[in-house]
Amino acid sequence: KQEVTQIPAALSVPEGENLVLNCSFTDSAIYNLQWFRQDPGKGLTSLLLIQSSQREQTSGRLNASLDKSSGRSTLYIAASQPGDSATYLCAAGGQNFVFGPGTRLSVLP
Amino acid sequence: DAGITQSPRYKITETGRQVTLMCHQTWSHSYMFWYRQDLGHGLRLIYYSAAADITDKGEVPDGYVVSRSKTENFPLTLESATRSQTSVYFCASSGTTGAFRGYTFGSGTRLTVV
Q1: pLDDT band at residue B98 under the 50/70/90 scheme
Q2: How far apart are CA B11 and CA B110, in angstroms?
Q3: Do A102 and B42 touch (CB under 8 A)?
Q4: Chain A residue nearest residue B34, CA to CA
Q5: Which of B44, B51, B70, B99 gets the most CB atoms within 10 Å of its CB?
């Protein structure tokens, strides 16, 4: 059974820092990995999707990489801003995703 | 408008009542999912559907019923609501035409059972 974990559970950084969020999964035979952002009381917004044939994706200040052999994905956020404060979740699998518990990020002005 | 919509946005119901949460998507995505999100448990899959008239249980299906007579709709029914079903419920969809494009989520329904 696929299990997804995320480290750290919470992170507080000053504005402007570059940071890395980690996602680990137990079944390396995943097909896809997707990163989401969730603001308090809101739904999940898709940030980046890494499909089975890809190793990384970039969107603006965000970069996500996938290493199936080690069972890890990282989300890199460059030059963090207070507006980046949210919970970040990763999900791994085929058509059925398993979600990690999330990393709660606070970016302090 | 195109997208995935959930209704109602908020619902308060009494223990033992039947409640139906609605989910509608306009992309003709084949897959649809229902999750519940609770503090300490994260997102847990309740039921999913691969196509109209095809549904399957997820991790926590007890006490819930789903149907999918049309591709665009995937209602979730709590047959006899219990306090433990107080949660935020999210619907999601994904397509199977061409490359996998990931999940898209609705805005959620916050359900309180009193």
Answers
A1: low
A2: 6
A3: yes
A4: A96
A5: B44
* Residue B65, C-beta contacts closer than 8 angstroms, at least 6 positions apart: B76, B77, B79
Quick check: B99 pLDDT over 80? no
| Rg (alpha carbons) of chain B, rounded to whole number | 13
Mean pLDDT in consecutive groups of 10 residues from the start of chain A, 109 residues: 92 96 89 93 93 90 93 96 97 88 96
The whole-number pLDDT of residue B1 equals: 56
Name the percent of chain B lying above pLDDT 70: 95
Q: Which residue of B has its CA nearest to A43?
A: B107
Whether the Cβ atoms of residue B48 and residue B67 lie closer than 8 Å to each other: no
Residue B69 CB neighbour total at 10 angstroms: 9
Is A88 in CB contact (< 8 Å) with chain B?
A: no
Q: How far apart are CA B72 and CA B27, in angstroms?
A: 8
Q: Is A51 in CB contact (< 8 Å) with chain B? A: yes
Q: Do the Cβ atoms of B100 and A101 come within 8 Å?
A: no
How many Å apart are CA A5 and CA A89, to the nearest integer? 10
Euclidean distance between CA atoms A11 and B75, whole angstroms: 37
Across B35-53, average pLDDT: 92
Contacts of A60 (CB under 8 A, 6+ apart): none
**pLDDT value of residue B92:** 95
First-to-final CA distance of chain B: 34
pLDDT at A76: 97
